[in-house]
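Exercise 7.
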Amino acid sequence: MTVSVFIDGGHGTTGLQIRERLADRSEISLLLLDDAQRKDAAARRDALHSADIAILCLPDDAAREAVALLEGSNTRVIDASTAHRTALDWTFGFPEWEPGHGDTIATSHYVANPGCYAQTFIALTHPLIQAGILDRDANVTVNATSGYSGGGKAMIAEFEGDEPATAFRNYALTLAHKHLPEMQRHSGLASQPLFSPSVANIYSGMLVEIPLPPAALRAGTTEDEIRSVLTEHYAVGQSISVLNASETAALDVVTIERCAGTDRMEIIVFANPQAGYFRLCAVLDNLGKGAAGAAVQNLNLMAGLGEFSGLRT
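Solution. The predicted structure, written as tokens, is:
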């Protein structure tokens, strides 16, 4: 038995990455529209209604319109936009979020794919808040840098155009990035973090860092405690791993390219025991585990297939 899948917005950056991961899988039947059909509302609606699972790789408003078009159908939905990530009637599509959450995704009708920045932030903070190590009332800051493919076709054209692009730049200077609501909701923090995102002149890759001073943590917290909580939380599965103490000690630097081209995330805990400061790092590919890889992992769960089938873990 095959599972029919329609990628609405399949010619965008994330959509093409998802198609690449599904193209050679015999258990997946991709419903494809030619250029003329993609602009035909009736053909698009028919494809949405014909699919077992639709993956929406669209701007927020277009994603909402697609969900409205699906009204009355049995098609299950994975939305890769920001539109539904904090909606109460949608399941947050981060299987590793909590124990058993993959089972919840498997039976859900509506699944909201997490944002790339948000997923890494949540991966670093949520287990520590649950364990009582990180104070949910703490004022948390997060610094993050992504490859330019995260900005879609317009930013790709800018960085790959004839005029040389800058090596590095920050943005979201109004401190109101669209990922903030899901970062707060799904981490468990009482307030939104102070988020400082940047983009580097590299196609894909992402490095997210959270500095934690003693005031944000339970008194007496150690490096081993933090690493142990994170390691135990991500012990099941193969897309997120936590470097052990010896692997961490061997590092002189952490590069943004470390997990580029993969569908995995690596977590690294650095510490200064004398000062009581910690530096949590997460590395992934913004198009992999941060977008297309996450969508395919959710698709696998919803379709009853191997969770990591077709992924580069």
